[in-house]
Structures are given as C-alpha cells and as structure tokens.
Design brief:
The protein is of the alpha+beta class and 132 residues long. The protein has two domains: 59 residues, 2-Layer Sandwich (Ribosomal Protein S8, Chain: A, domain 1), CATH 3.30.1370; 55 residues, Dna Ligase, domain 1, CATH 3.30.1490. It contains three helices and eight strands; from the N terminus they run H-E-H-E-E-E-E-E-E-H-E.
Length: 132
C-alpha cells in the first residue's frame, strides 16, 4: 500500500486507538515513526514503544497510556507540517503548544526531539506535529 503521508497515518492511528481505548497498537516500522514514538514515550504520552519482527516486516508495538479513570492521556494530536505545506522554524521561532502541557515534535539535523529540547540546543527544523 502506497502512503503519501506516513506521519499523518501514524498520528491518526494513535488518535483512533486512544478514542477506542485500545491498550496496544501495532504499526509498520520506519525509523522516523520510531523516533516520533520514542519522543512521545519520553514525554509521558505513551507507556512503551517496542520494535518486533524480522527486518522486512518489522513492526512497532505501542502501549497506550490512560489515566486511572481510563481517560486517554493524549487529548489532542495534530500534524503541523504536511507534504503540501512544510512548516520550518528556527530555534527562536519554535513556540509552546497549548501552554505548558503540550509539546511540538521537531525533526532537526540532530534528530527528532521536542520543541523545548530544540530550543535548548539552539537548533531549528521541521515542526512535524503538536501533541497535548
């Protein structure tokens, strides 16, 4: 299956799984998807990220995180930079997302990281998505 925007597909699958209250989500693996999920895990939006399977058919196994009342931790997740309209920002231009509760995920020359990290390291890049 050909995909025009695999990042948007990743975000949509996470959003739908959270709304359906799934505990686990299986996705096709790519290094960029894995990097985005690792950032979400480090920020506390996902419980765990694992890579399973052999080389040609590797999969990402995401364990989703919920509150004690079984409410999703991720309230919103949206794609900022799209294939038709890329959004780039310098280190000074990367803003905060929904106050202090959300994060921007940025693809930089140093790797995929949060907007806060990119600002601290004084590096800009493409703003992939916003999570709150």
């Amino acid at each position: 299956m050909s995909q025009t925007d695999p990042i948007a597909e990743l975000l949509t699958r996470i959003r739908n799984a959270m709304r359906a209250r799934y505990n686990e989500l299986l996705l096709p693996h790519s290094r960029l998807r894995e990097a985005i999920c690792r950032v979400l895990e480090s920020e506390g939006f996902l419980d765990s990220v694992e890579v399973g399977g052999e080389a040609p058919k590797r999969q990402l196994v995401l364990r989703l995180r919920f509150s004690a009342a079984r409410e999703p931790v991720i309230k919103g997740i949206e794609r900022v930079s799209r294939p038709s309209m890329r959004r780039y920002a310098g280190a000074d231009e990367i803003g905060k997302s929904s106050g202090a509760m959300g994060v921007h995920i940025v693809s930089t020359p140093l790797g995929v990281m949060t907007g806060r990290e990119a600002k601290r390291k004084r590096v800009g890049g493409e703003i992939l998505c916003r999570v709150w």
